[in-house]
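pipeline/complex-builder :: batch 7 item 3
reading input block
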Amino acid sequence: ETGVTQTPRHLVMGMTNKKSLKCEQHLGHNAMYWYKQSAKKPLELMFVYNFKEQTENNSVPSRFSPECPNSSHLFLHLHTLQPEDSALYLCASSQERDRGGEKLFFGSGTQLSVL
Amino acid sequence: AQTVTQSQPEMSVQEAETVTLSCTYDTSESDYYLFWYKQPPSRQMILVIRQEAYKQQNATENRFSVNFQKAAKSFSLKISDSQLGDAAMYFCAYRSAWGNQFYFGTGTSLTVIP
């Protein structure tokens, strides 16, 4: 079993649908992240949770709604998405300490297509 | 905000040869970390190597090594004895010593020719 597991692997949805992406980490880490990966663009940080509390929200549209019920699970709820939201969504985790520099552990991502 | 630039969208290397991937970054901070991540077709990003800015010695991990030039804000990755399994997208990333924010480059697609 990999350290960070994401489901589903692929998702096709219409603009009026509601769906959720799931991420689970088995590493005992205290921080979890959602990133968006689009072709020829740097990874975009969407949300960060430290100790289950959201600490970063990089001006993400409200049609993306994160949920972190505990330090091992992270969800990204999607509703009324736009075609430009089609991308690879990556979940990551890290073990944050007083001083940073810790590496990220990534899942395999969910490839999202919005029709 | 910090920026990370990878000026080589694509690179190729002959199997068993050496290749160097370039990365530059812009920051006013003195304490930070730099990373190279590999993303194979399986899509899972895997850490290749990590460098702490306050360490002058270049990091090495088996066939992978970096050339860290702090004054020039340059952080290149050298892959020696390239193998077919090295074919992937490679991302350079910057992280401040404080906070959770990582800054990634746009990636370099590496092809290994048999």
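note: Chain A is about 0% helix and 55% strand.
queue -> next item
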